[in-house]
Design a protein that fits this description.
Elements lengths: L1 H17 L7 H10 L8 H11 L2 H5 L3 H5 L6 H17 L25 H8 L31 H14 L2 H12 L5 H15 L6 H12 L4 H13 L2 H16 L4 E3 H11 L11 H17 L3 E2 L6 E4 L6 H13 L20 H16 L1
Antiparallel strand pairs: 1-3, 2-3
Helix pairs in contact: 1-2, 2-3, 8-9, 8-11, 9-10, 11-12, 12-16, 14-15, 16-17
């Protein structure tokens, strides 16, 4: 068995070095990478579980180490190797800004295997310039399979506020990132600061928003109080995570409509069970990952003001946020930029992120229009 496994690993290397297309699939590349961290074990099933759980090779390599370690079979050595591979590709050998804006390639992954992660593109280019057409190069909301990316970091409201204030001063994503890593965040560990910056980038700028989105976020960060900032962070974090979006739409919203207040990890776990036929990637998550993810999704929503409950509590309570006309106008502009007809905007499901029905969305938009006209 040992000889057979060694022979298989050698064939993986030879196919990769020869340029064999079969060695450049996400599964084959990840399997080969894992052989360097996990000796004397068939790692193909582990590679399959990682891809099912996180979505694709890009998502695996850029996942938070804590989320990776929550997967059965992944230890610290393997998690460090995966993150190191992504870090080298993204930050040491990032293409210059002059590279084609639509597709840039990271030398550590063959170009036909995976597109350069969105975070790397954003680091090089920054948000869309004010003079670009609306939506140019923008991926307005997340699509695709569920991932466990939110299993390790909560709302990070204060850290995000500091990042936005730094960006307001520097007006450059790369310079902002450097300042945050060099001590602009209060966490003592640089590794922790790197993980936090990565999460903030994924939620706010990896989708390459237009400049007006960043301006609205900065305005929320600069306000003496943070209600609007929390509302906007809730909106964008939910829209950039398919799983969180569906939990809010299919668990929290129905609870609210039925007059129920309590929401628990069990409710989220039940949702994951029900979603399994449509999302087989869930089956690749360990029990520990599912439990941690269920709790952390509720914690994120608590940090953004949609839920209340003590830290670590298994049960939270739904709280209807106070949505300002300014925040409502922000969402309406997002939907319009996505191509939603003006008459349909008050009916869009995204208003449920703030627990608003059609009538209240319409009333807020009327107020927002009146304020903007004054």
């Amino acid at each position: 068995m040992g000889d057979a496994r060694a022979g298989h690993r050698q064939r993986l290397k030879e196919r990769f070095l020869s340029g064999d297309a079969s060695a450049h699939t996400d599964e084959a590349l990840l399997e080969l990478l894992l052989t360097y961290a996990i000796p004397r074990k068939d790692v193909r099933p582990l590679a399959e579980r990682l891809l099912a759980g996180f979505g694709d090779l890009q998502q695996v390599l850029t996942a938070d180490p804590a989320a990776l370690c929550a997967v059965d079979g992944i230890g610290e050595h393997a998690a460090v190797l995966l993150r190191l591979t992504a870090w080298i590709g993204q930050y040491r050998f990032s293409p210059p800004a002059a590279t084609s804006p639509e597709r840039e390639q990271a030398p550590t992954i063959p170009s036909h295997a995976a597109e350069t992660p969105a975070v790397a593109r954003e680091t090089a280019r920054g948000p869309a310039a004010p003079d670009e057409p609306p939506g140019e190069g923008t991926q307005w909301r997340a699509t695709g399979p569920y991932t466990a990316n939110n299993a390790s970091k909560a709302g990070l409201v204060e850290e995000t506020r500091l990042a936005l204030l730094a960006y307001a001063r520097l007006r450059d994503v790369t310079a902002t990132r450097r300042e945050l890593l060099d001590g602009g965040l209060p966490q003592r560990s640089r590794a922790t600061r790197e993980a936090i910056v990565r999460v903030i980038q994924d939620r706010l700028v990896a989708w390459r928003p237009p400049a007006w989105v960043c301006d609205d976020l900065v305005a929320g960060a600069e306000a003496p109080e943070v209600p609007d900032l929390r509302l906007l962070l809730l909106l964008h974090t939910v829209r950039q995570d398919c799983l969180l979006y569906d939990v809010l739409q299919q668990v929290i919203w129905p609870h609210r409509q039925e007059g129920l207040s309590a929401i628990s990890r069990v409710d989220v776990q039940r949702f994951l069970d029900d979603a399994l036929p449509a999302h087989p990637e869930i089956d690749g998550w360990s029990v520990a990952t599912r439990e941690k993810l269920a709790g952390n999704l509720l914690t994120i929503l608590r940090d953004y003001g949609l839920l209340q409950g003590a830290q670590g509590s298994a049960t939270k309570h739904i709280v209807e946020p106070v949505v300002s006309p300014r925040a409502a106008a922000h969402l309406a502009r997002l939907l319009a930029a996505e191509g939603v007809d003006a008459r349909e905007i008050p009916h869009h499901d995204d208003w449920r992120i703030w627990l608003l029905d059609v009538a209240r969305a319409r009333a807020l938009l009327t107020t927002a229009g009146g304020e903007s006209a004054q």
